[in-house]
Design brief:
This protein is an alpha/beta fold and 708 residues long. The chain has 4 domains: 247 residues, Rossmann fold; 168 residues, Succinyl-CoA synthetase domains (Rossmann fold), CATH 3.40.50.261; 77 residues, ATP-grasp fold, A domain (Dna Ligase, domain 1, 2-Layer Sandwich), CATH 3.30.1490.20; 114 residues, D-amino Acid Aminotransferase, Chain A, domain 1 (2-Layer Sandwich). The protein is built from 24 helices and 30 strands. The strands form 5 sheets. It has a 7-stranded mixed sheet with strand order 3-4-2-1-5-6-7, with helices on both faces. A 7-stranded mixed sheet has the order 9-8-11-10-12-13-14, with helices on both faces. Strand 8 and strand 9 form a beta hairpin. The longest helix has 18 residues. The protein is flat and about 100 Å long.
């Protein structure tokens, strides 16, 4: 869909209201009222078969009476008449239609069929459809409101604005109200609803090229075109336009159908989040966070460096800030007298140099300390952001503190991102100080927690965005590295035969079908050995007694063989075995899980974390993307909850992290080179001390059937 088509909806020169009404509160009346309130100057055509005029405006009997080529039509009518109306609009060469009515795809088979027909008509005639089941749109750039929600004119007055694209119309309105309360201009607000023939991706693409939109806030429950969304995210990053995403609902669909640990742990939401964050999208977890991040992204120059400095006025609050920053993952570079001479010179001797910086109550007797310390921190190259936490107490206290902070801000011509936050929410701060801060490009939050969390989100996006260089991105190819695998679950012995030649280390072993073959294989491999039942129907062998370990001689192999088959017969009497895999027992080490998933929509993702039979219970994993550098993989592993175990904990040796990173990279490349592989699950993978490598003790794969 090209820009000219979408402009016919977002910037229409003519509008038709199908179902126009003079009744206050009626949808058609509300749309007309909004257009009048916004001062819309284009042609407005009212359609109501029972009226000749509404509020002094002429009224047409039907859509067939419209002049050809109306840009946008608003359907303020019941669902029963929508399909007929869309058909009539297509005959009159209308450019776009906004459908408020619900009861289509969300309303059962009949509704789904009607929505598909609407999409077909739109595609055939080059129409853009917003909805159905949407609240319409608002364009504050040109003064257009095609919505039944009462809307006030809020012109941008030359300021850059925030674009809102939301599948939920209600949430788009809520976010717009929140932003307006902070004097943050909104350029466009679009509710996409059911997305019969246009989705959030089309509107994002338009807003990226639209000069009045600097930041885009997204409220999206499902992306219909994920790969296009990722391309748009890369484009936004290149253009310097920030995308901020709130994704309601964290689907457990993958958990319910997963055959592997990897499928259970790399759920739909986690996969989506890993993909979009790698392309620089800022993800948030609440409406409040969405508003906070959008405000910082619009008002400030952005985060150019990783470190953050925090100014406080209380020792206890300093400790709370340390806790919060650690929880949020916000880096606080260490400050002391030796490495911060400018900051030391700005403060009296009894105020310690630290980060967070506790100014004590000195600001009450020496207000200029705020200006001096702020300037010292702002000129320190270690900091990309500064949070100024102020105890406000009352108007008189604010009168002593804020002028000094503002004086420091005025002296700064450029520098880090700066946010001011009140420690005591509800204190009577004079509004003019908040207005002056905003005029200087400094957001004000009533809570330091909100400032820290929002900066942490932006800092994480700044470090993650674009980490996959275009030249290093691994594209899916049509030909696999090895012959195609059969569809379905690929049991361990076949998975290892496939993965071993690709450089994934597995124990020495042999696939056998009889006890005699097992004994011969054990003698050849050398004791001790393990027996593992093999079947595509036995994804988790240990749950059914399908694994016997530590067999030290011929007699142990014989008794182990009988035990394995007896346990399986008891737990799974209908199971048919392919055979048994007998392997040399591996040396002990740290158990990891390393796996991967090829999602039909999002592409490949790799999972790594603490493994073994408790992998799903612990859930201590990270999602990584094919194409990441070894260094970024190792950094991600260090952020596991149990990351200290990898680096040498309480005297244990550091593990071979380069070998772990190499294995992760090989899994990612394998997925990308053979898109038919849906999942790879290596659990456990034994990681050995530095220089001694890794070993995949178990392997399972799931392969998609050929696509028609």
């Amino acid at each position: 869909m090209n820009g000219k088509t979408i402009e016919r909806l977002l910037r229409p020169r003519s509008v038709a209201i199908v179902g126009a009404s003079a009744t206050p509160g009626a949808l058609g009346a509300s749309v007309l009222g909004n257009l009048q309130r916004m001062g819309y100057r284009g042609d407005v055509h009212l359609i109501n078969p029972n009226r000749t005029e509404i509020n002094g405006r002429p009224c047409l009997k039907g859509i067939e009476d419209l002049p050809p080529g109306v840009d946008a039509a608003v359907l303020a009518i019941p669902r029963a008449g929508v399909l007929e109306a869309i058909t009539a609009l297509a005959r009159r060469s209308a450019g776009a239609a906004v459908i408020f009515s619900a009861g289509f795809a969300e309303g059962g088979d009949a509704g789904r069929a009607e929505q598909r027909e609407i999409a077909r008509i739109a595609a055939e005639h080059g129409m853009l459809i917003e909805g159905p089941n949407c609240l319409g749109l608002v364009n504050h750039v040109d003064g257009v409101a095609l919505t039944f929600v009462e809307t006030a004119a809020m012109p941008l007055h030359g300021r850059p604005g925030i674009g809102i694209v939301s599948q939920s119309g209600a949430m788009a309105c809520v976010l717009g109200t929140m932003l307006a309360s902070r004097d943050l201009p909104v350029s466009y607000s679009v509710s996409t609803g059911n997305e019969a023939a246009s989705g959030v991706e089309e509107f994002i693409e338009y807003l990226l090229t639209e000069s009045h939109t600097a930041v885009i806030g997204l409220i999206v429950e499902q992306f219909r075109r994920p790969r296009h969304l990722l391309w748009l995210a890369r484009r936004a990053l290149e253009m310097g336009k920030r995308l901020v995403l709130l994704h309601p609902g964290r689907s457990n669909a993958a958990r319910e159908s997963a055959a592997t640990h990897t499928g259970a742990l790399a759920g739909d939401y986690a996969l989506m989040r890993a993909k979009v964050e790698a392309e620089g999208v800022v993800t948030v977890e609440s409406l409040e966070e969405l508003g906070d991040v959008l405000e910082i992204a619009l008002r400030t120059p952005g985060i150019r460096r990783a470190g953050t400095a925090v100014m406080t006025e209380s020792g206890a609050f300093k400790a709370l800030t340390l806790d919060l920053c650690e929880q949020a993952g916000l880096a606080l570079p260490r400050l002391d007298d030796a490495n911060s001479p400018a900051l030391r010179a700005a403060m009296p001797p009894f105020v310690a140099v630290s980060n967070p910086l506790d100014l004590t109550a000195q600001g009450l007797v020496d207000p200029d300390i705020y200006r001096r310390t702020l300037l010292a921190l702002a000129h320190d190259e270690r900091f990309g952001a500064i949070v100024v936490d102020i105890i406000q107490t009352d108007a008189a206290t604010c009168e002593r503190k804020f002028p000094a902070v503002l004086a420091g801000l005025r002296e700064l011509k450029s520098g880090p991102l700066i946010v001011c936050a009140g420690v005591d929410e509800g204190a009577p701060i004079p509004v003019r100080y908040i207005e002056e801060l905003r005029a200087l490009g400094v957001p004000y939050f009533p809570s330091p927690d909100r400032a820290v969390r929002a900066i942490a989100r932006l800092a994480a996006a700044a470090s993650a965005g674009g980490r996959l260089e275009p030249a290093k991105r691994i594209a899916h190819t049509s030909s696999p590295l090895r012959p195609a695998l059969p569809p379905g679950v690929i049991p361990e012995y076949r998975a290892k035969a496939y993965l071993g030649p690709l450089g994934i280390a597995v124990p020495a072993g042999s696939f056998v079908r009889t006890l005699e073959e097992a004994v011969q294989a054990a003698e050849s491999l050398g004791y001790p050995v393990a027996l593992k039942a093999q079947s595509a129907s036995l994804s988790h062998k240990s749950d059914a007694g399908g694994v016997v370990l530590g067999l030290k001689d011929r007699e142990a192999v014989t008794s182990g063989w009988r035990k394995l088959h007896a346990d399986l017969a008891r737990h799974l009497p209908d199971l048919t075995l392919d055979g048994v895999l007998i392997e040399k027992m591996a040396r002990p080490g740290l158990e990891l899980i390393i796996g991967g998933r090829n999602d039909r929509e999002w592409g490949a993702v790799v999972l790594a974390g603490i493994g073994g039979v408790q992998a799903e219970l612990l859930g201590d994993v990270r999602l990584l993307l094919p194409g990441q550098s070894r260094e970024s993989i190792i950094t991600a592993l260090s952020r596991l909850k149990c990351g200290a175990l990898l680096e040498g904990y309480r005297g244990s040796p550091a593990l071979d992290l380069p070998a772990v990173a190499e294995l992760i990279d090989r899994v990612g490349r394998t997925l990308c080179n053979d898109p038919s592989i849906r999942e790879i699950d290596l659990n456990p993978v034994i990681a050995y001390p530095a220089g001694q490598g890794v070993l995949a003790l178990d392997a399972l794969m799931v392969v998609e059937p050929p696509q028609p």
